[in-house]
Amino acid sequence: MKQLIIIAICITFITSCSKHVENYIPNISGYWEIKKVTLPDGTVKEYAYNNTIDYLEITDSLNGIRKKLKPTLNNTFETSNIIENFEIKIENDSLNLYYKTHFDTWKETILLATESQLKVVNKNKAVFVYKRFEPIEITN
Q1: Nearest CA to 30 among 66, 60, 80?
Q2: CATH fold of 21-132, please?
Q3: Any idea what the Cα angle at residue 126 is, between residues 65 and 95, rounded to 5°?
Q4: pLDDT tens track for 97-110
């Protein structure tokens, strides 16, 4: 009986620790600024300032778009109007975004998506850490 209780506790612990990547989906939409990139060789590049940001929007339960935007001083954005469409798939406890353009197709895996942070690994195994974009307030 004691062994059954220990086994039940272990199973409960293991299943409660498994990732529920579908919970990341509501946090993906928004304006994201790259904070740092970790390359496969361990090199880390920190970004103190970015002249472009990524705008991601979930357009329905399984699809979305990404646009590159350039913030302006009056809290608006300039854009080239180039839109990358993606499809969301949950595969093997991973949340994957599949992109397809006229020029290329690729996959990115969402490692974390919270209200304030987005962590993505691309096909080259570079890990991108984003923070929510906050416009710069200029006061006189």
Answers
A1: 66
A2: Lipocalin (2.40.128)
A3: 45
A4: 999 988 899 999 99
